[in-house]
Amino acid sequence: xxxxxxxxxxxxxxxxxxVTLSCEQNLNHDAMYWYRQDPGQGLRLIYYSQIVNDFQKGxxxxxxxxxxxxxxxxxxxxxxxxxxxxxxYLCASSRGTGLTYGYTFGSGTxxxxx
Amino acid sequence: xxxxxxxxxxxxxxxxxxxxxxxxxxNSASDYFIWYKQESGKGPQFIIDIRSNMDKxxxxxxxxxxxxxxxxxxxxxxATQPGDSAVYFCAENPYSxxxxxxxxxxxTSLLVTP
Lengths: 114, 114
Description:
The complex is a heterodimer.
Chain A: E1 4-7, E2 10-13, E3 19-25, E4 31-37, E5 43-51, E6 54-57, E7 64-66, E8 76-78, E9 87-94, E10 104-105, E11 109-113
Parallel strand pairs in A: 2-11
Antiparallel strand pairs in A: 1-3, 3-8, 4-5, 4-9, 5-6, 7-8, 9-10, 9-11
Chain B: E1 10-14, E2 19-24, E3 32-38, E4 45-51, E5 56-58, E6 62-67, E7 72-77, E8 86-92, E9 103-104, E10 108-113
Parallel strand pairs in B: 1-10
Antiparallel strand pairs in B: 2-7, 3-4, 3-8, 5-6, 6-7, 8-9, 8-10
């Protein structure tokens, strides 16, 4: 079955460390996205990518970095510059970013700073 | 409705009743809207969508209503079941022809009581 897979499900980071969250999809979707969700809050866009080797900053890109070397993969690195990284991170993909393209979401990665 | 601050608005309904969840959107240029359901610790799941050239769309037990005049979207769930308990998000595509990502509202928590 096609889907989108995020790993790990839970991740713990020490102060000053960079960590990378994995997102892989086998839906043949062109566009991929990273959102951050804090308790009681909606989803805020970190980065998105419409095609391979191209990506754009979202509303809260500071302290994060991404790459899109393959269509199937869109890893997110949370750098030490992100001062408050504890959150639930959601990856999504869609056939495109144009009209009427809804998203398929992964099951999320919960990142905690220890 | 949409929340301000850390607390989600909560709608509590009895099993078997109908539920109405509301969402106000901000961009009059938005032309595509989606409702998502998110269960605790999981990624959001697509429920139903609607384009701006429609004012109503029905699915299985769900109906979405769009009022462009007042920029209001609602999700109606018929005969609400315990499995409907979740957080519901509306999302809009503000500039669908320009490759922008979906904007999500902050969500409404639906609690179904027996």
